[in-house]
Write a structure and sequence with these properties.
Elements: E1 4-10, H1 16-25, E2 30-33, H2 48-57, E3 61-64, H3 66-69, E4 79-80, E5 83-84, H4 86-90, H5 93-106, E6 111-115, H6 124-134, E7 139-143, E8 149-151, H7 152-163, H8 174-189
Parallel strand pairs: 1-6, 1-7, 2-3, 2-6
Antiparallel strand pairs: 4-5, 7-8
Helix pairs in contact: 7-8
Amino acid sequence: MPPLALLSIGHSNIPAERFVALLRAAGVGAVADVRSVPLSRHFPWFSKNNLAALLAAEGISYLAMGGTLGGRPRDERLYRAGVADYEAMARQPEFRAGLGRVRNAAARSRVCLMCAEREPLDCHRFLLLARRLAEYGLGIGHILHDGSIEPHAATEERLLALTGEGSDLFAAGQSERLAAAYRHRAQAVAYRRTPRAPDRPTGKR
């Protein structure tokens, strides 16, 4: 197994001090913020400017990458039945370019993808980003809130168990079952657009 060049974390409601402690314990040198909307009303220390300043004080770089790697695409064609289509998103040139930026940064220091959801199985950082980055042979781990780092393959085992696709990654049909598990989970947790209300007639011509 390759060394963990890349990590992920969901900030959830972690106090700022605990969040920094988790990053430092994991040897993180740069945080790639992959939130489409890098703001937090309830936990303002995770809003973009506050977070960048907090990390800078700890010698950790901040990379704003939600524009290309966020889970809420602006292009209506990247939704299926109102749900963000991760497989379609992964085919976009700008998405691939964003992955390239992450890989380049990971070659210089240990990068941690950051989004909001506590559980990797509930977040596009695992279901979309880590899945595709693992295809490049990067060692990936997910920082859990107890301080442990779960290897990406172990998270995939939990995904298979959760979706009922079986947990034996070495059995025949491994890749097909895993792909089905990713699709199933993404359909359950990916961002859903709020239906747009139809325009009401004004009576004016």
